[in-house]
Design brief:
Layout lengths: L7 E7 L3 H12 L7 E2 L5 E5 L2 E3 L5 E6 L4 E6 L6 H9 L2 E8 L3 H10 L7 E5 L2 E6 L2 H4 L2 E7 L3 H9 L6 H4 L3
Parallel strand pairs: 1-6, 7-10
Antiparallel strand pairs: 1-7, 2-5, 3-4, 3-8, 5-6, 8-9, 9-10
Length: about 170
């Protein structure tokens, strides 16, 4: 029996106006418009380049399509990976997302083709996501997500006894 191929589970498009983009996508897809919701960072820890970061007032609309989620992200004016992308490139595809069972293994595979460890990581009690700059190797950024119990890790991060990505740096 062959192992199933990894799946791209999400495409994130950064937009100026999530409500308008959502209305346009609803029209094109022939579905009901997904609401553009302001996301909160409650229960999450985000780090960009190793520094704790707050990303409030971003808006997101999501369409659950047959094989993937289309995410329309409108960044707030404050600094964030999405704001940086929008300011430098305008609207466009920000990343493809893959859910993985083993982040260490994925980072090792990415490292083998020259991709550095993530520049941005977000932790929740039930999982994590990270962004790697893989433009030179893959043509776009990749978001590596997984489901895992991060409760203890989040406590250590909050106490300052752990740093972002400590749990995967032993690979390198």
């Amino acid at each position: 029996m062959t192992k199933p191929l990894p799946m791209i589970t999400q495409i994130c498009i950064v937009v100026h106006d999530a409500e308008q983009a959502s209305a346009n996508w609803a029209n094109v897809l022939g579905v009901q418009q997904a609401p553009a919701e302001t996301i909160t960072m409650e229960g999450l820890l985000h780090y960009t380049y190793g520094n704790l970061a707050e990303y409030n007032n971003c808006k997101v609309a999501k369409y659950e399509l047959e094989h993937l989620i289309l995410e329309l992200m409108q960044p707030a004016e404050s600094p964030s990976p999405w704001r940086t992308f929008l300011d430098h490139h305008g609207q466009g595809v920000f990343h493809f997302c893959m859910f993985v069972d083993d982040r260490k293994s994925m980072y090792s595979k990415l490292g083998a083709i020259g991709v550095e460890l993530p520049y941005h990581v977000g932790y929740a009690a039930n999982g994590s996501y990270s962004y790697v700059n893989s433009k030179a190797q893959l043509g776009l950024e990749l978001s590596v997500n997984n489901v895992a119990d991060n409760s203890h890790l989040m406590e250590l991060l909050a106490q300052g006894t752990a740093k972002p990505l400590d749990e995967v740096k032993l690979l390198r």
